[in-house]
Amino acid sequence: MAVSATAGALLGLLSEKPMTGWELVEEARNRVGNFWTIQHSQAYRELAALEREGLSESTKEEVRGRRRYRITDAGRDAYLEWVASTPKDENVRVPFLLTVAFAADIPPGRFAELIEDQRRRHTERLEQYERLRGELAADDSPHGGGRRATLELGIGYERAALAWLDELPAHLGIDLPAPPNEV
Questions:
Q1: What's the predicted TM-score (pTM) here?
Q2: Could you tell me which PANTHER family the record lists for this protein (predicted)?
Q3: 55 and 11, same structural domain?
Q4: Quick one: which of 56, 75, 170, 179 has the fewest CB in 10 Å?
């Protein structure tokens, strides 16, 4: 049975242990959150569909109405089929690229602030990833290598984004004023 990437990811997480919808979203955020996002509402819709299709099942309601889900044998088969299939092409969405596309319509001082904000965000994520790298170094679980590999892509992406931000004014042929905190 073919499943979507989101459903496949949820089944993959459930193949490790039973979790609530909330725990699934948090685990997905920890592992691949900056490259593949799953919203709580989306996770619960997918979990309901997986349960209807017999790919997962839930326990009776726990505290605050939460249910713990676990993968079924059919769900494990669907997950293994999905994870071994050829992934679709990437669909990279970087909202700041839309800003860059229309940079000529932004006052230079404001554009400098926007670049500085992006630089701060990417620096914070890079620092977060590098801390996580240390934590994952000792992960010898079956999924440890995949977690480290995913993290290395994140580190490489953040470094590339920072280098691109440094070069951005030259690409646009503009001379930006220094951000206010560097004056």
A1: 0.74
A2: TRANSCRIPTIONAL REGULATOR YQJI, TRANSCRIPTIONAL REGULATORY PROTEIN
A3: yes
A4: 170
